[in-house]
Write a structure and sequence with these properties.
Blueprint: E1 2-4, E2 10-16, E3 21-28, H1 32-45, E4 52-55, H2 60-69, E5 71-73, E6 88-90, E7 96-105, E8 108-118, H3 130-142, H4 157-173, E9 181-183, E10 189-191, H5 194-197, H6 207-212
Parallel strand pairs: 4-7
Antiparallel strand pairs: 1-2, 2-3, 5-6, 7-8, 9-10
C-alpha cells in the first residue's frame, strides 16, 4: 500500500504485487478514517486468507489493520481493589504486516529500514514497496490529473475519482503488463493483463469489451 501527493487530497492505493493488480484506491485526506476505509475495501476484495501487508511507515496503517482484523481480549475481574484492566485489541496469528521506513536528512535518503510489525516468518524480500512506487510513477506518466507541478492536475475530487476508476479498470483488464510475461502454446512470448494473471478473467479485454460490459446490480431485501 502507498499514499502519495504532497498537498490537498491524497491518493491511497492497494496493490497486489504478485499479479500487478490495482485492488482499490481512495482519494482523501491523510487521516485515520481514510486508512480504515482503504483497508476495509481491500479486505472486501480478498478471499478469506489474509495476505502479507506491506506499507510505508505511516502509523495509520497499523491502526487500520487492527480495526479490520484485530481480536478483542477482555480481561476477567480479579476481585481486587482498583480499576480493572482495560480490554485490548491484538492482531490475529495469521495477520502479517511489515513496513518500509525511509529515513531522510536534508531531503536526501540516508537509510531504508524494514520492520516486521505483526506476525512472523516474513521474508525480507517480501518487505518492499518498490513495485507500488513504480506504479505511482506509471500513474503520473499516464495521467496528467495526478502529475506533479503541472496545471493539468484535477481541481475537483469527484471528477478525479471518476477518471481514476476508469483508468484503474482499464489498467487491470485491458492493459498488458511488462512484468507478467509468459509463453503461449506456440512458444511465443506474451504479456498478461493483471486481471487475467490473477484469474478474474480468462482473456485480455479490449476497450470495447470494457465499455460494453453489463453490470448487474443486486437488491437487498
Amino acid at each position: 500500500m502507498e499514499v502519495y501527493e504532497d498537498d490537498g487530497p491524497w491518493m491511497w492505493v492497494a496493490f497486489a504485487t504478485n499479479c500487478r493488480l490495482i485492488v482499490t484506491f481512495i482519494i482523501g485526506p491523510r487521516k485515520q478514517y481514510v486508512a480504515d476505509e482503504l483497508v476495509k475495501l481491500t479486505a472486501d476484495c480478498l478471499s478469506e486468507t489474509i495476505p502479507v501487508y506491506v506499507t510505508d511507515g505511516l502509523d495509520f496503517y497499523k491502526v487500520a489493520l487492527l480495526n479490520q482484523y484485530g481480536v478483542r481480549i477482555e480481561y476477567p475481574k480479579t476481585g481486587k481493589r482498583g480499576r480493572p484492566k482495560n480490554p485490548k485489541i491484538v492482531p490475529p496469528e495469521d495477520l502479517k504486516y511489515a513496513q518500509v521506513v525511509k529515513k531522510r536528512k536534508g531531503g536526501k535518503l540516508q537509510k531504508v529500514v524494514r520492520k516486521v510489525i505483526f506476525g512472523e516468518d516474513i521474508e525480507q524480500k517480501e518487505i518492499s514497496t518498490n513495485l507500488i512506487e513504480r506504479q505511482n510513477l506509471t500513474f503520473r506518466q499516464d495521467n496528467n490529473r495526478v502529475s506533479r507541478k503541472t496545471i493539468g492536475f484535477s481541481k475537483v475530487v469527484k471528477e478525479l475519482v471518476n477518471q481514476m476508476k476508469l483508468y484503474c479498470t482499464h489498467f487491470n483488464f485491458c492493459r498488458e503488463h511488462g512484468g507478467l510475461k509468459y509463453k503461449d502454446e506456440r512458444d511465443v512470448e506474451c504479456k498478461n493483463t493483471p486481471a487475467k494473471e490473477c484469474g478474474i478473467t480468462d482473456s485480455k479485454w479490449t476497450l470495447r469489451d470494457l465499455l460494453t460490459f453489463k453490470c448487474f446490480k443486486t437488491s437487498v431485501v
